[in-house]
Amino acid sequence: MEKDKVQEEAGIETREEEDDESGTKRERESGEIEGGGGEPSRKKRDPEAVSRFKQRSAAWFAKLKEEFERKVAEHPDVDWSDSLAIDASSYRKDWDYVWSQAYGSFDKITPIPPMRYTTADPGPDYASEHDAVQIFCVKIRELRRGLQWPIHVFGLVAARDVIDHNRNIIFNRTRDDCQLLTQEVPYLLLTGPTRAVVVVDPVDFEVALKVKGSIESEDKDLSFLAVQLTRISNISGTHLINKEYTSKLSTLELTFGYIVRSVEATINVRVIDGSWPEEGFSARITAHTSSLKDYRVLLLDSGDEKKMSVTADGMIELSRRVVSVEFEGELEVSVAAFGSNCNYMEAEEKFTPRTMVKARPSLMLAFFGGFNRIPMSHVRSASAAADAASDWQKVRAEWFARFKEEYERKVAEHPDVDWSDELAVDARHYRESWERIYARAYGPFDKSTSIPPMQYTAEPVPFDASEQYTLQIFCVKIKELRRGLQWPIHVFGLIAARDTIDHNRNMVFDRTRDDCQTLTQEDPYLLLTGPTRAVVVCDPVYLEAVLRVKGSTESEDEDLNFFTVPLTDVNRPRETCLITREYTSKLSTLELTFGYVVRSMEATIKARIVDGSWLEEDGSSARFTACTSSLKHNGVLLLDSGDKRRKMRVDADGVVGLSRRVVSVEFEGELEVSVVTFDGSNICSKMEAEIRFVPEEVGESCVELDVGFCKMEITVAWSCLSLSCR
């Protein structure tokens, strides 16, 4: 894509372009922003290469324009400025063509009920635990184009899996039954799914939400989309995923869990002794699988109405009742009651998924000194359930016998290994496999990647170098200590990513025993220093963690985290998204937050003081962050010199020593770099500047900033990415 030419005049003018269709403005070049000024420095380009690039771009644009004009003529009623809405319209067309003959109309709701295999009768041979998607919440994060809170919302949210390709309704309201959303409470009140959402092929997520106007003709599309909740990896454990989808009028945020090897739990709650007070009491009932204990499915929140619907036979009418639970984990159900006189009572019960399924433990809630018994009738049904009779027991017995034999053999071969830490065992197996497959071609297992950043910043760029899918590591946190380990801890070791470019370590964190980082309960984040180049997604990307806690002597050091896990597989999300995962080892739980960045470039950032000097003796500090525009709430911390552990280094040429400098940026997006400085001589003196860069095919972008006591030059070197090792 041909980029705007650099202005030849002295200084860079900030220029905005207005999209006639959407009215949205986009800053195309960065210049005199927040006190900045100056002329960008660019590398001279090979005229022949530029000419070839322009010819390719012109041909591509001509073809795109022709196709666009044809579609506009065919569908004059479509708003072509909303790309998600366009994709949703295309999705419906494709669905009708492929699936309607077998599964009925596009609007059809799944007829498959929950609890299909709850009974003890043997189920079909293909029934077993399956990976599933659990929708936790749907939030309207932001309103756009002048739309104001509160808003009255109606429409539907649904998931579609390959079981029947029909709508599994998650939210469904008519125009006469709108939900009122406010800036303080922007969450939809979900009522589904009606059965577990099973992951085999990618699950589709469909949204058709509207804002109610004064009359029906004034209703507006709030969010209209159909996207894939792509399968990231089915072997790396249950994890949480956040995604954002920006439509013309709003940004919708979806939080869901990827639950591995799960069964379907259908929950009923019934009052069997006493009665629920008709007035003055509200209830909040939640459930979750044990490995995602911080994220609960809200089954019922009777809220401020202080009234709960109870049938004649004592059954409480839940808003939602289907939850996906890891077969090897636990289902936790919590009931909390709130009284008008500040009375509060909460009870929690844990259920273990089992093959023979009905269990009726009771939860006790105290009301004014009396007790009501409220049993949780927990019904386990596999989305495809395992055989519940003797055949299942026989299969399990044979499997355990083979497993025991293999386990005892490995223990005898490796008496020094702690076989109770499954992640550590898998990490050792990974190393053995890696050395067998890759060592001859790529060197020893401990080798760091020799591929530098800015590989294709200068022309000529090879034909196979282009935008690629990448991973951006945002932060690594020790979330929890286990087995009596106490804060603070002194941590050393490494964290690295491995992609298929060279299969070597791309260092994200690396400290020796003599240079430990001290982690506290208040500040449990590792100070990351990488990656040293962009992490490219082709085949699975692996994350390797070898972290140790320093003891009084070297012999007293302990493994804090030791694992190697895949972060991706060959299935790709369609959109840039944020992913959070947790990995529990013997002594701790590590939390990783990373972004999956689609069609991205590598941006290498440099900061240099060009006028004035850094007032280090006055205690001045700076915080540098960068992000791709579609993940603007999650920045890469390049440097925080306000942290005593990150003293700001400036060399003789004025170059600031950033802790991290490589960021992945969507080619169709923007790179946002933020610099915040604090003048140590005046605690209230703060200067903040944010610069936006539009990615280039090659070369560098440069902007000068005035931060008060000095001027800085921010340079971004752009590089395409190749899947080959050169």
Automatic annotation (TrEMBL):
Biased composition regions of type Basic and acidic residues, renumbered to the chain: 1-14, 22-31
Annotated spans, Disordered: 1-50
Domain DUF6598: 132-354, 470-716
Superkingdom as given in the UniProt entry: Eukaryota
PANTHER family named among the record's database cross-references: EXPRESSED PROTEIN, OS07G0486400 PROTEIN
Descriptive protein name: DUF6598 domain-containing protein
